[in-house]
Design a protein that fits this description.
alpha+beta, nine-stranded antiparallel sheet, four-stranded antiparallel sheet, about 40% strand, globular
Length: about 290
């Protein structure tokens, strides 16, 4: 039973071109690691101290999905997962019906799952992140569960994870209707991500002002300087007086991440949230405004 992080650090190649061998010899609860001619020693534990793998007894099938579909859905919502341990009801990814959801109270990400599942599940952020790293296979992922545990299998990899017992909030009511948001912008995600990266270089807070009239102007100021530029749009439905509002650049960049399809940005009033939709992928993000 070996300590993972030190072993990983010792065995990690210097580059992808390195294909050397790793030799592990264990004696008297000490592992001798030989990598590229360098010998290191790590303390070990008795093998029987490793926790038992979850039994297959009582497992019921949840879903059989293309691994890439689940990977893309989880990868999109994970940035919005809360990391504040004092708010455990937000720390993770909720899978219910045919959607994956995550929120930290400042933004909300929703992605469509391949099919609906019979019963909702609340995964910890660590479990969801590990699952994303497993789903690099082009094949299928099998999800099964007991009352409190999820088992995911993809290719040669299996993940057993305890499900969270907290109740994930009803976030659907936090998604504003597009009917109440008169301004709709069609934008190319790559252009938005490029703009947000530029803003991040100017202001540490990562916040920017958005002015919408005939064009969309983004600006940011800090003690280190300022920047202002026009965000190219495919279409812009705004009419009337200027709409001036502000948002977090990181949140917007992550809201349009993971797809190069044209995104729709819906805006209401000055202090209303922003809604981002990818109609072709079934993804939606809600970003709360900030004062700038």
């Amino acid at each position: 039973c070996l300590p993972l992080k030190p072993l990983l650090a010792l065995a990690k190649p210097e580059s992808r071109k390195d294909t050397g061998l790793v030799s592990i010899d264990v004696a008297d609860l000490t592992a001798t690691i030989l990598v590229d001619g360098v010998t290191s020693k790590l303390p070990t534990l008795p093998a029987e101290d490793f926790p038992e793998v979850m039994s297959a007894d009582g497992l019921s099938l949840v879903a059989l999905w293309p691994a890439k579909d689940l990977h893309d859905a989880l990868a999109y919502v994970l940035p919005a997962a809360n990391d504040d341990v004092t708010r455990p009801h937000l720390c993770g990814v909720n899978l219910s019906d045919n959607r994956a959801k995550a929120t930290d109270g400042h933004r909300l990400h929703i992605a469509t799952l391949p099919t609906a599942i019979p019963e909702g599940m609340f995964l910890s952020t660590d479990a969801a992140s590990t699952l994303v790293h497993m789903l690099f296979d082009d094949g299928q992922v099998i999800l099964a569960r007991t009352e409190n545990t999820l088992r995911a299998r993809c290719g040669a990899w299996t993940l057993d994870a305890k499900l969270k017992t907290e109740t994930f909030p009803d976030v659907d009511q936090a998604v504003p209707s597009v009917k109440t948001m008169p301004t709709r912008l069609e934008v190319e995600p790559q252009a938005v991500r490029k703009a947000m990266a530029r803003i991040g270089k100017i202001t540490r807070r990562g916040c920017f002002k958005m002015t919408v009239n005939g064009v969309v102007t983004l600006s940011a100021d800090s003690d280190e300087g300022s920047t202002e530029f026009v965000l190219p749009t495919v279409s812009n439905t705004h009419v009337g007086s200027d709409l001036v509002t502000g948002f977090n650049a990181v949140y917007l960049a992550e809201a349009v991440n993971g797809s190069d399809e044209t995104a729709e940005i819906h805006l209401g009033g000055v202090l209303d949230p922003m809604r981002v939709d990818f109609c072709g992928t079934g993804r939606t993000a809600v970003v709360m405004p900030v004062r700038v």
